[in-house]
Design a protein that fits this description.
By secondary structure, the chain is an alpha/beta fold. It contains 7 helices and 6 strands. 24% of the residues are buried.
């Protein structure tokens, strides 16, 4: 698959690059995508939720009424979950939601995500670029030139593009990552995936192992 290379003003440079079919042209594996996205979202969860159970509630432990003769159910501590202000039954406890996936499955999921975006013509290849200083305004101008100012976008740039990354941090619809920072969720969540020309080789070498 050949894709035209654009500059940051959105103009065609007249050059084309060949995308590897092993990375950008495979048959997508839906289950691998599901598992990788599930793991990513699970890793975002802090797992710090906690509610107090009856043993953790502050309150008297005296028996609040006699055992028999009241016509109602037996009752002991006021901290019982059946009473207002009592402990919670089987409440949430702190836990770790993360789980393990093997590298081959994660690699397959990411290739599947890139292949879906390539098939839908949502991949854009641009010349390498950087800013002299971090400026959000300059990054916004790039988005407008590429007609991405109203869309969600993922920029995959080289590690030397730190100023571009810093310029994009305040924009909620754009995300800048390196070739090694690609994940399935971000690729599929983007309306357009913009890849710097020099990072293509890194992406293909990382995912074609």
């Amino acid at each position: 698959m050949k894709v035209a290379v654009l500059d940051i003003t959105g103009k065609d440079t007249g050059r084309k690059v060949e995308l590897s079919n092993e990375v950008f042209g495979i048959e997508p594996n839906d289950h691998a995508i599901y598992l990788d996205v599930k793991q990513y979202l699970a890793n975002q969860r802090q797992g710090t939720h906690k509610s107090k159970e009856r043993g953790e509630i502050a309150g008297s432990t005296r028996k609040i009424k006699k055992q028999k003769g009241t016509g109602t159910a037996r009752a002991g501590s006021i901290k019982s979950p059946v009473f207002r202000g009592g402990g919670r039954i089987f409440g949430p406890r702190p836990r770790n939601y993360s789980f393990k996936l093997n590298k081959n499955l994660k690699r397959l999921a990411r290739k599947s995500a890139l292949s879906i975006q390539a098939k839908d013509s949502n991949l854009v290849v641009v010349e390498d670029f950087n800013f002299e200083t971090p400026k959000t305004k300059e990054f916004v101008n790039v988005l407008k030139a590429l007609e991405l100012d109203t869309k969600k976008s993922l920029f995959v740039l080289g590690t030397e593009s730190k100023n571009v990354y810093l310029s994009s941090r305040n924009l909620k619809n754009s995300k800048v990552v390196s070739a090694t920072g690609i994940n399935t969720y971000n690729v599929l969540n983007a309306g357009k995936v913009v890849i710097a020309e020099s990072t293509l080789e890194g992406i293909e070498s990382n995912l074609s192992k």
